[in-house]
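Submission checklist for the structure archive. All mandatory fields must be present; incomplete records are returned to the submitter.

[x] Identifier: Lipoprotein signal peptidase
[x] Organism: Chelativorans composti
[x] Residue count: 163
[x] Sequence attached
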Amino acid sequence: MRRSTAWFIFTVVAAVVFDQAIKLWVETNMPLHSRIDLIPFLSLLHTQNTGIAFSFLSDLGSPWLGVIAIAIIVFVAVLAFRTDPHQIYARTGFALIIGGAIGNLIDRLIGGYVVDYVYFHTPVWSFAIFNLADAFITVGAGLVIFQEFLVWRQGRSANRASE
């Protein structure tokens, strides 16, 4: 149990540190709206998002979005600590979700916006601009879903064996 909690805390802290370090680099080295093409379909594009995903709820204001973020962090933490410590994918996923949410919350509290910079695009299509914290949240959710799939498969196998 102790090892699982230490891994959880390490993952949250590492996610926040990596996220904030990259955002700091972007803000100090790239003027707002500047773009650095990395490969033909991937660029760094310094933007500021006052909402949440896809600028949704940007009219709500940073304080209320901060309150929502804190509520989500608390909810996910409760789920994480109710999860069996042996469910490493789910626990890691919850830690990544919390780390990403804290990273974006820090931005929102300090600047009133979230720094976004990852930009996937082609000449005819472009994806939303996001950041490492958003990627942590997405990967974390994927790990939680994967763990649930594994638990479901184990349950099915156990039911077949008992029939």
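[x] Structure attached
Curator remark: The chain has four helices and three strands. The chain has one domain: 2-162.
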